[in-house]
Write a structure and sequence with these properties.
This protein is mainly α. The chain has one domain. It has nine helices and no strands. Helix 1 runs parallel beside helix 4, helix 3 runs parallel beside helix 5 and helix 4 packs across helix 9. The N and C termini lie far apart (about 45 Å).
């Protein structure tokens, strides 16, 4: 139990540091260097930024990079390739989260919540609701790990995860780059 809590604390510390890194990237011009380097390779830049858009640890710098790419390019191109990169990142996270993160959460909350709550992810109405909420989290600015953890708890199949991840990441990235272009 203490080891699970220690790992979660470490994860939250890394998330906080990633937001500081994103601020530093913008403040000291590192994002400008990335945008200049990927100017001719917008597809590759969007794909790579999309991969990093999925994780709580890297969402802040990736959002800044995607917004910067959209300022000098077509929104739908950035959103499409960013969503493909995010799908790739989500697949990696899904396999990690399904095995590690979900187990950590189960061990921590097992003491506090009744076992029937978690079994409802497999059999009850939450089996169908969890992927829906997971998809909404993927589309939101929240880190995809939360949504993927819900999908992992409900044993969502890859055939369902792949289109959900692509479509909802596309919507989320398109919203982000649209707001960046308007503001």
């Amino acid at each position: 139990m203490k080891q699970n809590i220690r790992r979660l604390k470490k994860d939250f510390l890394i998330i906080g540091l990633s937001f500081l890194a994103a601020y530093a990237f913008v403040r000291f011009g590192a994002i400008n260097h990335f945008l200049t380097a990927t100017q001719e390779f917008k597809i590759l830049g969007s794909f790579v930024a999309g991969m990093f858009f999925t994780s709580a640890f890297t969402i802040a710098p990736a959002s800044v990079a995607l917004a910067g790419l959209a300022l000098s390019g077509p929104l739908f191109l950035v959103a499409f390739w960013g969503a493909l990169g995010a799908l790739f990142g989500d697949l990696i996270l899904f396999f990690l989260i399904r095995d590690v993160f979900a187990d950590d959460l189960m061990k921590i909350f097992r003491r506090f919540w009744h076992r029937h709550f978690f079994s409802s992810f497999h059999l009850g109405f939450l089996k169908w609701l969890a992927p829906f909420f997971g998809a909404l989290i993927i589309a939101s600015p929240l880190p995809d790990e939360l949504g993927l953890a819900l999908m992992g708890l409900s044993k969502t199949k890859l055939i369902v995860l792949i289109p959900i991840s692509f479509i909802f990441n596309f919507i989320g990235i398109l919203g982000l780059v649209f707001i960046a272009k308007v503001l």
